[in-house]
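dumping this here so i dont lose it again. seq + smiles for zinc ion
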Amino acid sequence: MAGPRLLRTEAVVLRRHDLGETDRILTLFTAHHGKLRAVAKGIRRPTSKLGGHLELFTHSQILLARGRNLDVITQVDTLDPFIGLRENLWRASQAYCAAELIDRLTEDHAENQPLFRLLTSTFERVATCRRPDQAVRFFEVQALGLLGYRPEITRCVKCRGALEPDRTWFSVSDGGILCSSCRVSSPACRELSQNAVKVLRLYQSGDWETASRLRIGDDLAAELERVLRDYTQYVAETQLKSAAFVTSLREQGLIADR
Ligand SMILES: [Zn+2]
């Protein structure tokens, strides 16, 4: 009988839930095989050699045995546990937003290495940088682009005309910014401030170095969060649990972000 097919890849844990007495099912985003679900057998036994290695958001090198239905994790080496995500509820909640976006917007087994690299660098930033919320906004803009939903923010998404410098509107159903004449036919669009447009363009340029030095006030941060959440939820065709989670933490005063 042929042995199981083995597969070695880098992976990040997006989601996990317990199975039976001692097992756990993990949703992984991998560098070479996209998103997949795998079982970690016996991981909840105190003696398991997998124990402690497959915490949420952890970046690891894993060895998988391909199964008929589910792959089985046979070996793990932790590359980065992103300790900062575990010690701080604000950072953890922001990492959850990035993980859920990947989980909702990617197909199983669809390789997307740039997106994998973006996710690991985002977790690194969220774990350590001054503004984890902005690291996630940057991630959202970049990830939407890598997944084929790049928002049009340089010209009017409908007529392709140049934008007036003073007033612009964002339409989630059109996937971008509208000029003042086009916005009339998209009643659901929302006005977007010039500062928000500028920050989104910087995020789209991919320059985190510059972006990380911006001083973003509360109102602008709230505006960026709202427009990107609306657009992401529109694309995902569902409400995001992570967004609701962040909102509820804020309402309970459990995180004092921004
Ligand atoms: Zn237009």
